[in-house]
Write a structure and sequence with these properties.
Layout (H helix, E strand, L loop, with lengths): L1 E5 L3 H9 L6 E6 L18 E4 L6 H10 L4 E3 L8 H11 L2 E4 L5 H17 L7 E8 L9 H13 L5 E3 L8 E8 L6 E7 L4 E7 L4 H13 L5 E3 L1 H5 L2
The structure holds NADPH dihydro-nicotinamide-adenine-dinucleotide phosphate and ligand LZUJQKHR.
Subunit structure: Homotetramer.
Subcellular location: Cytoplasm
Pathway: Amino-acid biosynthesis; L-lysine biosynthesis via DAP pathway; (S)-tetrahydrodipicolinate from L-aspartate: step 4/4
Length: about 240
């Protein structure tokens, strides 16, 4: 595929390095400081798909611009989901293609799957166990909690009814799921779910060793999306 990269930071550079091995050609880079190209410079005649990893404040505008240009867009930016319904509506109105994942790593998507299974199973033992989450990321991360943590929290809330809401701090009531955030050095991304009783702790943990897993998943999605109108996520791609 001829891909354009929107955002040329940590993820943009990793995507550019891995794209050729996935059979993609980078035909454009759009970044607010590191390039002079704009999304409006591209059309389906010059690019097959855009991959967007920028910032919570810019992601929605970038997604809209891609859809208006008729470009299928794979978006990994987090922290903008309060606009997601609007993005979906625009995608449907224009007959476009949008792929969003809070985390493109195959391992994290298996983690999401196991998390939901464990939450449903632990619901039988909700009287004895409390559950909490922690996400740990590098000090440059601007959004909190991480998009991945929010997806995992939704998976718990949907399957463990003792928790009805989440709080990005220690829980203040039994029905609150604590989703704790730590920012430490250059940690790529670690997510933990812990069920704690008086007797023991059961823990599910994913630790990313590099950004290559995120980039590989996004490049896979970029190969899959063109020609598929609609709004998609990793479950569609991986059949989970
Ligand atoms: N879904 C997933 O699997 C993953 C998601 N992410 C998410 O992706 C996003 C980017 O992460 P990361 O690459 O680490 O962040 P970086 O800060 O390293 O890179 C972001 C890049 O986007 C640029 N940028 C900011 N605003 C715009 C804009 N309006 N148009 C074009 N480019 C812009 C920044 O430019 P400048 O520096 O000049 O401001 C920077 O080069 C974050 O939201 C992060 O949470 C990250 C990893 C995996
Ligand atoms: O900002 C990051 O680095 C990451 N962001 C994503 C998130 O918010 O979940 C995915 C990954 O954890 C890395």
């Amino acid at each position: 595929m001829r891909i354009i990269l929107i955002g040329y930071g940590k993820m943009g550079h990793t995507l550019a390095a891995l794209a050729p091995a996935h059979g993609h050609e980078v035909v454009g880079i759009v970044d607010q400081h590191a390039s002079t190209q704009r999304i409006e410079d591209f059309t389906p005649a010059t690019a097959d798909v855009a991959i967007e990893f920028t910032h919570p404040e810019s992601a929605f505008e970038n997604v809209k611009a891609c859809l208006r240009q008729g470009l299928p867009v794979v978006c990994g930016s987090t922290g903008w989901l309060h606009h997601f319904e609007e993005a979906k509506a625009l995608c449907q109105e224009l007959g476009g293609s949008l792929f969003y994942a809070s985390n493109f790593s195959v391992g994290v998507n298996l983690f999401f799957h196991f998390n939901e299974y464990i939450a449903a199973k632990m619901n039988q033992f909700a009287a004895g166990y409390d559950v909490q989450m922690t996400e740990i990321h590098h000090i440059h991360k601007v959004d909190q909690p991480s998009g991945t943590a929010l997806t995992a929290a939704q998976g718990i809330l949907a399957n463990f009814p003792a928790k009805t809401t989440w709080r990005n701090a220690p829980a203040q009531a039994p029905e609150e799921l604590a989703v704790l955030s730590e920012r430490r050095g250059e940690v790529v991304g670690t997510h933990e779910v812990r069920y704690v009783s008086a007797a023991d702790t059961i823990e599910l943990r994913h630790e990313a060793h590099s950004r290559e897993g995120f980039a590989a998943g996004a490049l896979l999605a970029a190969g899959w999306l063109p020609g598929r109108p609609g709004v998609f996520g990793m479950n569609d791609l991986l059949g989970l």
